[in-house]
Specification:
heterodimer, A: 114 residues, mainly beta, seven-stranded mixed beta sheet, 0% helix, B: 113 residues, five-stranded antiparallel beta sheet, 54% strand
Chain lengths: 114, 113
């Protein structure tokens, strides 16, 4: 499998502030990373596909100006939640796919917006 | 887009018995079907996956079957143990390593001692 880390693991912020979440691929150079969101006791929903050196591809209904994705290197993708609101509180998880299909997930970041 | 349905939402079985979780998908172009296990507050862990050129795959107590014609696939866990208790998610994608996964809603598996 692949080793994926995320930072921070938990973050609490005030409404209206921005939060940056990092996803690192520690043993694999990832040209593509994925960002998912998981609400409590719910399933994972794909938010966007992060592409190294180019713009991210967002899923329908995901605001690209609110969820800014930067994939500046082969080992790091960042997700910035801008002007966060309580409804953005969720578990954000990234994944990488070192082989043709298999995806391995990071440990996730629990975001709480007050 | 793809839609994945998963049943049941909760499954309670006696330790040692078998558990079966079923999923259906809508997009005939999907060709990769992984299963993930997620414990509370943890990341999803891949437990088994199957590709559309195979009808069945087994790994010790875990097996997955795929029926492409009917567009459904199932997870089978035999000789269940307490540590099998978790939420299990099925997923589907068109593969290629550049495709995100569409997940089912999850099954909370409870192993009764």
């Amino acid at each position: 499998g692949a080793v994926v880390s995320q930072h921070p693991s938990r973050v609490i912020c005030k409404s209206g502030t921005s939060v940056k979440i990092e996803c690192r691929s520690l043993d694999f150079q990832a040209t593509t990373m994925f960002w998912y969101r998981q609400f409590p006791k719910k399933s994972l929903m794909l938010m966007a596909t992060s592409n190294e050196g180019s713009k991210a591809t967002y899923e329908q209904g995901v605001e690209k100006d609110k969820f800014l994705i930067n994939h500046a290197s082969l080992t790091l993708s960042t997700l910035t939640v801008t002007s966060a609101h309580p409804e953005d509180s969720s578990f954000y998880i990234c994944s990488v796919a070192p082989s043709r299909d298999t995806q391995y997930f990071g440990p996730g970041t629990r975001l709480t917006v007050l | 887009g793809e839609n994945v349905e998963q049943h049941p939402s909760t499954l309670s079985v006696q330790e040692g018995d078998s558990a079966v979780i079923k999923c259906t998908y809508s997009d005939s172009a999907s060709n990769y079907f992984p299963w993930y296990k997620q414990e509370l507050g943890k990341r999803p862990q891949l437990i088994i996956d199957i590709r559309s050129n195979v009808g069945e795959k087994k790994d010790q107590r875990i097996a997955v079957t795929l029926n492409k014609t009917a567009k459904h696939f199932s997870l089978h866990i035999t000789e269940t143990q307490p540590e099998d208790s978790a939420v299990y998610f099925c997923a589907a994608s068109q593969g290629g390593g550049a495709d995100g996964l569409t997940f089912g809603k999850g099954t909370h598996l409870i192993i009764q001692p």
